[in-house]
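Re: that chain you flagged

S.,

Sorry for the slow reply, it's been a week of failed gels. I finally had a moment to sit down with the sequence you sent. For the record, here it is as I used it:
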Amino acid sequence: MTDYSKLLVEKLLSMGFYNFLLFIVTLTAIYAILKNKKLLGNSPIINGLISFSIAFFVFAYPAITGVSIAQSLSAFITQAMILCMVLLLGLLIASIFYPNIIEFLQKAFTSRNLLFGAIALSVALFVTSGLVTVIFVSPSPTQGPFGPTGTATQTTNEISLIIGGLILTFIILLIASHISKGA
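Prediction finished late last night. Pasting the structure tokens below so you have them in one place:
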């Protein structure tokens, strides 16, 4: 039997619809942040232009690097929604055994252990969905912006190492501050 939804998704994927959808989502999110925080003032034209520019860079990323953001992002969102459903189901079952679940959760959400657990879960979700390949990617020499010289690959690897080092340093500082406070 023919699965029409699968055929539709494959056709939309081949036409680049999901990359365009990512462009629209990025444009909307950046515009909302700029409008809400008023980082560039109240001008909708300036906020729109900056949002459009950033969204266009995101839209051009798959063409420059050869890595599709849409597939990894789709896997990430799907895994995150499944995780949310499992957590909500767990809270529903826990509410049967704890009559005052709200008070219990208020005490639980004030501890740093929950924060560290959420950070670890987010990093694990980020790695298992494949989004880590979007950040730590080396453009192919024939498809990269610098042509077949290979200098883009070396530069991207260096940037990836710097970003990875900064993330690791941030995690170590969080753990060290947690230990020094004795919490």
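What I noticed first: The mean pLDDT is 79.

Talk soon,
D.
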